[in-house]
């Protein structure tokens, strides 16, 4: 029976059951309630099965034009700044279509007049539902929605937070890994990378060491702050991944000899789990080879007997 029904029919069946249950003068004894729940369950299960097999992006999909219609939604300023409305709108209209988000739609969404609070609600909801978004779409959310919105907001004071760590959580959410540290400074005029260290990705942490940012202490202080933080728990705080990015970025942008020396010294003095010792030796060797000439003494070679 259920296999012969199309998606629209199934939606109608579910709606009919709910409508009849609401309007009928039912005596809700155990038998009646069991019958209603069984019928509703069969319809819902069939509907979920159909939805799981639906290609939302195909030309024949009944949902094909919905995103286009969403672009032209006529929201009032009151709607866009109403937290309850935005939560409901996300659940009803946007969440079912997360797998089909396009750069064009996300760009349009970024130009809506959300308040900082309603924008942050969308970021939170999108972060909680990242698994429903395609791999490419996840990066698009940052590139075409979050970054443009915050860029426009920054002109008029931005979306401030108590500190930079909280700012990342509220305004970038699960998409923060796609931002460079320099972009964070561009999006928030009060941003401070050291204050945000606990939520930075390994790449962003490497950027903090290699690049220069206004308002931060000298490089030697930054290096010590970073390694003091990471070496508390080098595995959990992804020391090896940070070192990979550090070597890549230092190769592109360069570092002073004193910075290479300080990093190598911190690594040599570090206490790490046994399985991390060999990779760290390798990274130390890489750093010594990359450093300016004369920065490290040449390796000692044993004479041939």
Describe the structure.
This protein is mainly α and 305 residues long. It folds into 3 domains: 1-23 and 38-50, no CATH class; 66-191; 201-298, no CATH class. It has helices at residues 7-23, 30-52, 66-71, 77-80, 83-94, 103-110, 116-128, 135-155, 164-171, 181-187, 202-210, 219-230, 239-253, 257-269, 274-290. Helix 6 runs parallel beside helix 8 and helix 11 crosses helix 13. The protein is elongated and about 95 Å long. 22% of the residues are buried. Residues 1-5 and 66-70 have low confidence and may be disordered.
Number of strands: 0
**Proportion of residues in β-strands:** under 5%
Number of domains: 3
Structural class of the secondary elements? mainly alpha
Separation of the first and last Cα atoms: 88 Å
- What count of helical segments does DSSP give? 15
Proportion of residues in helical segments: 55-70%
Write down the secondary-structure element order: HHHHHHHHHHHHHHH
Alpha carbon gyration radius: 27 Å
Largest sheet: none
Shape: elongated
Mean pLDDT equals 85
Which residues sit in consecutive blocks of at least 5 with pLDDT less than 50?
1-5, 66-70
């Amino acid at each position: 029976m259920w296999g012969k029904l199309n998606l629209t029919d199934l939606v109608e069946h579910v709606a009919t059951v709910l409508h009849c249950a609401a309007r009928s003068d039912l005596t809700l004894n155990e038998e009646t309630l069991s019958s209603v729940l069984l019928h509703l369950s069969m319809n819902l299960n069939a509907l979920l099965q159909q939805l799981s097999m639906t290609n939302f992006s195909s030309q024949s999909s009944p949902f094909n034009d919905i995103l286009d219609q969403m672009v032209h939604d006529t929201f009032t300023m009151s709607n866009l700044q109403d937290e309850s409305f935005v939560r409901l709108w996300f659940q009803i209209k946007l969440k079912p279509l997360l797998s089909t988000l396009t750069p064009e739609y996300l760009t349009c969404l970024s130009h809506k007049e959300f308040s900082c609070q309603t924008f942050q609600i969308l970021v939170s909801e999108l972060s909680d539902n990242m698994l429903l978004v395609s791999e490419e779409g996840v990066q698009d959310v940052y590139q075409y929605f979050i970054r443009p919105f915050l860029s426009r907001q920054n002109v008029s004071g931005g979306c401030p937070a108590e500190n930079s760590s909280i700012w990342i959580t509220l305004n970038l959410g699960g998409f923060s890994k796609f931002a460079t540290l320099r972009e964070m400074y561009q999006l928030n005029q009060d941003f401070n990378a050291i204050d945000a260290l606990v939520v930075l990705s390994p790449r962003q942490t490497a950027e903090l060491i290699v690049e220069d940012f206004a308002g931060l202490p000298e490089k030697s202080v930054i290096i010590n702050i970073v390694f003091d933080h990471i070496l508390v728990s080098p595995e959990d705080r992804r020391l090896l991944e940070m070192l990979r990015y550090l070597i890549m970025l230092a190769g592109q942008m360069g570092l002073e000899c004193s910075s290479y020396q300080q990093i190598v010294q911190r690594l040599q003095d570090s206490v790490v789990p046994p399985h991390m010792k060999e990779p760290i030796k390798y990274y130390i060797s890489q750093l010594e080879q990359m450093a300016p000439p004369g920065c490290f003494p040449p390796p000692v070679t044993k004479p041939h007997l």
